[in-house]
Amino acid sequence: MVCGVIMEKIAHMRAIRRLSVIGAIVAASAVASAQPQLPSLLSERPLVPETWTVDGVERSALVSAPAETTGKTAVPLVFVFHGHGGTSAQAARSFKIHEAWPEAVVIYPQGLPTSGQIIDFIGQYAGWQHLAGMDGDRDLKFVDAMLAWARSRYTIEPAHTFAAGHSNGASMVYVLWSARPDLFAAFAPSSSIFPAAVIGTAKPKPVFIVMGRQDALVPFKLQEYSLKGVLRINEADTSDKSWSGDARRHAPLKAGRGAEVIAYIHAGDHKLPADAGSLMVKFFKGVK
């Protein structure tokens, strides 16, 4: 009799504990469901590696793109070039163009070992040709191949095609400006200069230029001189007005002629500012 009562109490206590555990789980689930959920990493559009064979050499890039379409609406296309010794993955992390403009096809190409103009004169590290005609125009041909690939999958138009780059990657942007101006709507070079040998024959194009006052690799004075040359070919006003943050706008002197120049002059060194990529996207979106 006593034993039976004891067993009944034990069973009752176990039932209470089970209910308490269940209640705690339900309460925890309710709290969790009430909390804002972080976006799943799987829902973010990945950077996909792509390869092309150009003059018998395999070339590669990381690509962020929406679903393939050949509809009538043009899809923006942006090429983003890393600096000397850099990588396509590093450019994606620095510029983050694909994050700021998810509707665009964004291509981060990978350079080949290239002789540098400031460092790495023997060419151990990846980079880009400095002028049209150098290195058999291997990088210009690479861009042509990537552009053809993009056009086969999307509606790509020059009015929505852009190029950005940092340092030696910006030198490649200037190569495209001088050699392929009709294929691009605008450019965004950072921490480089437009070579004097070709700037005089360049066509006016909207441009967003990033310059660091403390740049030790490409002296600020040289970049200032290059900017003055760009203002001349774009027939833009030497005086400027506020555009966004530290970036200033130089408007064309006459309506219907020339092109605007946005100069983002920052207090830092050769490094790309953290907000440069998002400002470039803002600039590209406003190009008409």
Notes on the protein architecture:
With 288 residues, this protein is of the alpha/beta class. It folds into two domains: 1-35; 47-286, Rossmann fold (3-Layer(aba) Sandwich), CATH 3.40.50.1820. It contains eight helices and twelve strands. β7, α5 (168-179) and β8 form a beta-alpha-beta unit. The termini are far apart. Residues 1-43 have low confidence and may be disordered.
Q: Biggest β-sheet, characterized?
A: 10 strands, mixed
Radius of gyration: 27 Å
Q: What name is given to the CATH topology of the largest domain?
A: Rossmann fold
Mean pLDDT: 86
Q: Give the strand content.
A: 15-25%
Question: CATH homologous superfamily of the largest domain?
Answer: Alpha/Beta hydrolase fold, catalytic domain
Shape: globular
Number of helices: 8
Q: Helix and strand succession?
A: HEEEHHEEEHEHEHEHEEEH
* CATH domain class name of the largest domain: Alpha Beta
Poorly predicted ranges (pLDDT <50, ≥5 residues)?
Answer: 1-43
The gist of it:
With 288 residues, the protein is of the alpha/beta class. The protein has helices at 2-34, 88-95, 97-100, 138-153, 168-179, 196-199, 220-233, 276-286, and strands spanning 48-54, 57-64, 77-81, 105-109, 112-113, 126-127, 161-166, 186-190, 207-212, 241-244, 247-250, 261-266.
Q: Descriptors for this entry?
A:
alpha/beta, single chain, 2 domains, two-stranded antiparallel sheet, globular
Q: How is the topology of this model organized?
A:
Elements (H helix, E strand, L loop, with lengths): L1 H33 L13 E7 L2 E8 L12 E5 L6 H8 L1 H4 L4 E5 L2 E2 L12 E2 L10 H16 L7 E6 L1 H12 L6 E5 L5 H4 L7 E6 L7 H14 L7 E4 L2 E4 L10 E6 L9 H11 L2
Parallel strand pairs: 3-4, 3-7, 7-8, 8-9, 9-12
Antiparallel strand pairs: 1-2, 2-4, 5-6, 10-11, 11-12
